[in-house]
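Students often ask why we bother encoding 3D structure as a string. The short answer is that it lets us treat folding as translation between two languages. Here is a chain of 364 residues written in the first language.
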Amino acid sequence: MYLALYDENQNHITNIDNVTYELTRRVYDPDTFTADGESAVQINNAKIAVLCDDAGNYVYSAFVDYVTPENNTRTVKGLDFKTIFNTDILIDYTSPGAFDGRLSKIFTKAAKLVTDDPDRFMQTIPLVLNIPDDETDTILNYGTRQGEYIVSDAYEYLKCYLKFYEYNVEARYSEAAGQIIIDFVKHNESVDIALVDFIYELQTNSDTVNKAVATIAYDIKTPETDTDGNIIYSDVQETDESGAPVTDADGNPTRHNETGISRCEFVYDEQGLNVVEKRYFGPDDALTLRKDIGYAILRSDYDESGRFIGESYFGIDGKPTLHKVTGRAGFEKILDESGNDLEVASFGLDGRPILAKMGNCYLR
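And here it is in the second language, the structure alphabet:
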């Protein structure tokens, strides 16, 4: 896979090759996206990242939060396009007849207050809003807002309407059109889920706090198997140093898997919003180290406002271990009031500051 980077004028800067990535998609909160790959180019002004598979097919896109270099390795931290709406807007419904309770009108008003203000949005990158014509009368459930004069975070203002009326905000960057496209999409499909659809266990971390880890098995596709019934976890046959195909003891072709994992478990916080832990398992369903990054467990930290402020890495035994790419056991961030990074501090196995492979203990 590769990551194409563009500046704010949509000029192509470079491609980062041999990319591995971690992406957590969220319905109503910002996605988290991090990618590691190879590039000899010094990257200072990237604004948009587009993830593609080896055939050039689109996978994901986001703003570039920052790029961390280490020799020819580049680590890219993405920022969800939905964060465009994480800005304060002035909503004025004081003039007679100003409030229109139709759902599409509420979506349009809030979105336009964000995107039409040149002081808030990067005008050099065209933005297309696709809001369907939905005549649903919201007054029946939320009452009228006529007479209100409020300052609110645009996305928080929209979120109650999005959730209740089953809309998602889906955003992407179109390389062909040179536009950020934001769609308000209604999802009203219903799915019957029973307890038997889950693999679950109870984890007790203390006398007062319990966490339930659940992996849902839904829309399962029968995996491809070899002649002995073993699941094939990759379509790429493994080769030796001479390029000759590698087979197992029974003559079956072995397949290349960069990560070495077959599934991942997620643990959410008490509100069910943020992933606080990821656990990686191999084909034998045992906890295993990811080959590309060198750890079995990833734990993420969030502040009281639910903002991501750091992460740490652990081995199969649950003890701290070093990230294979960055050489640190984790990092902590200090954020300003707007959520921007003021400081990123790397730490080692003992929890003390460490000089990471990118050449710093603290990034300010």
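Translate back mentally: The mean pLDDT is 81. Keep this in mind for the problem set.
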